[in-house]
Design goal:
Blueprint (H helix, E strand, L loop, with lengths): L4 E2 L2 H7 L10 H14 L7 E2 L3 H8 L3 H13 L3 E4 L3 E4 L12 H4 L9 E2 L11 H12 L1 H4 L10 H13 L9 E4 L2 H12 L5 E6 L3 H9 L3 E6 L8 H11 L3 E4 L13 H13 L3 E5 L14 H4 L4 E5 L11 E4 L2 H12 L7 H12 L1 H26 L4 E2 L7 E5 L5 H10 L2 E2 L15 E5 L4 H15 L16
Parallel strand pairs: 1-2, 5-15, 7-8, 7-9, 9-10, 10-11
Antiparallel strand pairs: 3-4, 6-12, 11-12, 13-14, 14-16
Bound molecules: pyridoxal-5'-phosphate (PLP).
Length: 480
């Protein structure tokens, strides 16, 4: 398999600590540091490392030292070499996390004492759906006289979604909207239509695990680009990866990213979208969280570049159980997607779409109430972490439903396992990446009431201190 992107000597040197300050021989410090960067998702797997000569020059160390470090990485399965194509980052066999079925198989979360932090999602706002349902029921009779199959979606709902895009400064007609059974359904349809086996799809690292599963489920090849350590995009790295790998698609979440809650500013979007155009990469922007910001949003990606495909849904602002989402694309693409969709599930449920029309009329009011509810929960989670686990670092989320904690040891999976014993359901950081990296991170949703979050953090802190760190070495961090 050919490497998909390349890290230069100076770029790698900038990621490394001062090797001379680390204990032991310099070659071991170098190989351990690179291993840690891979496992933390700071260097994506399949990245081509600089040649030994180039890295030696950048680090001002002998070439023999770099050779020894690369040999150690190779011996541990973190580097693979191919004659003529250099050395590229890998992870040892057996470390790939499997698609999680844990959410569907756990019985633990049924107990009232269990605090479930596995999902960044909210229950429906009280009373809202009941009112929308009554209104939809009163309007369904004329529609029952039709065949009810509309693969592109109910015209009235397509109009509502288009109007909302227009209100955000994205001129949109109803024929640019496809109604889907949620944002993930929209992504899956796009992947089915737009990629073939082995096609590359650039993603942020970390990113929404469901999107990674969908890409791999459609035989796509994930090209992950690490987010900045302080949160947000590494714009130059994304642009360089686009140029080096010319991926078929890019799947990005610039509006309150899951799991970090980051908002990407307009100039970063502009730069990335311009480069994607040059490399012929179709950009899919996931706007699932766009209405859940604690600060003013950025200019919509599709307003910056109309060729961007936007996906969204009512799952996060209203309720996941509705299963109503949409995508915005060029009319001919919407037409092709509707034809594809008709071969899979025919069309979306009419009653649910009528409910959605009603909800769209009140969406600003609903989302304002959501944000007002979420802000104190986010603050409570931050305060609890600062009090109970001050050694963990978090970038304060600007929106969304979760934050991304950097732990002081790469023990996210063991913590997740131990946490179940004290009634807390967690998802390890590695679920938001590929190849078992990101063990130093944990996604923490703030979608529960403040006192539940407080209690969850107290329980997590209790087990965090019990974890055996004596065996922590970079070799043992990858958990299948
Ligand atoms: C970024 C992102 N996109 C899509 C989804 C799935 O959304 P839906 O319920 O609309 O399919 C989620 C759910 O967590 C998500 O976090």
């Amino acid at each position: 398999m050919a490497p998909v992107s390349r890290l230069g000597g100076r770029a790698l040197a900038a990621l490394l600590p001062d090797l001379r300050t680390l204990p032991g021989p310099v070659y071991a410090a170098l190989s351990d540091s690179i291993t840690a960067l891979v496992l933390d998702g700071r260097i994506a797997t399949e990245t081509r490392l600089p040649s030994e000569r180039e890295l030696a020059l950048a680090l001002q160390i002998s070439r023999a030292t770099v050779t020894a470090a690369y040999d150690a990485l190779r011996a541990d399965g973190f580097l693979a070499s191919r004659t003529g194509s250099g050395s590229f980052v890998s992870v040892p066999p057996g470390s790939r996390p499997r698609t999680s079925l844990a959410r569907w198989s756990t019985a633990a979360s049924d107990s009232p004492d269990v605090i479930d932090l596995s999902c960044a999602t909210l229950p429906a706002p009280p009373g809202v759906l009941e009112v929308a349902l009554a209104s939809a029921a009163a309007r369904i009779t004329p529609l029952t006289h039709t065949d009810g199959y509309d693969p592109a979606g109910l015209p009235a709902l397509r109009e509502s979604v288009a109007a909302r895009f227009a209100a955000r400064g994205v001129s949109t007609s109803a024929d640019q909207i496809l109604i889907t059974n949620g944002a993930l359904h929209g992504l899956d349809l796009l992947l089915r239509l737009l990629i073939g086996p082995g096609d590359r799809v650039l993603t942020e690292l970390p990113t929404y695990s469901g999107a990674l599963d969908a890409i791999r489920g459609n035989n796509g090849r994930v090209v992950p680009v690490p987010m900045a350590a302080a949160g947000g995009w590494q714009v130059e790295l994304i642009r360089a990866t686009l140029r080096q790998t010319s991926p078929r698609l890019a799947y990005l979440t610039p509006d309150f990213h899951n799991p970090t809650g980051a908002l990407i500013d307009e100039s970063a979007r502009r730069d990335v979208l311009r480069t994607a155009r040059q490399t012929g990469t179709t950009v899919i922007v996931d706007e699932s969280f766009v209405d859940l910001g604690f600060c003013p949003g950025a200019r919509a990606s599709a307003a910056i570049d109309p060729s961007v495909i936007s996906i969204g849904s009512l799952s996060k602002p209203v309720w996941g159980g509705l299963r109503v989402g949409w995508l915005r694309a060029a009319p001919d693409l919407v037409h092709r997607l509707a034809a594809l969709r008709a071969s899979i599930d025919m069309a979306g449920p009419v009653l649910d779409q009528l409910i959605a029309v009603d909800l769209f009329d009140r969406l600003d009011e609903i989302t304002a109430a959501r944000v007002a509810e979420l802000r104190p929960q986010r603050d409570a989670l931050i305060a609890a972490l600062a009090r109970e686990l001050p050694q963990w670092r978090i970038a304060v989320p600007q929106g969304g439903l979760s934050m991304w904690a950097e732990l002081d040891a790469p023990l996210s999976t063991p913590l997740t396992l131990l946490a179940t014993q004290v009634g807390v359901v967690l998802v390890p950081g590695s679920r938001f990446g590929i190849d078992g990296t990101l063990e130093r991170f944990l996604r923490l949703p703030f979608s529960l009431p403040a006192q539940r979050l407080d209690e969850a953090v107290r329980r997590i802190a209790g087990v965090w201190t019990q974890l055996d760190r004596s065996n922590v070495s970079t070799r043992q961090l990858v958990v299948a």
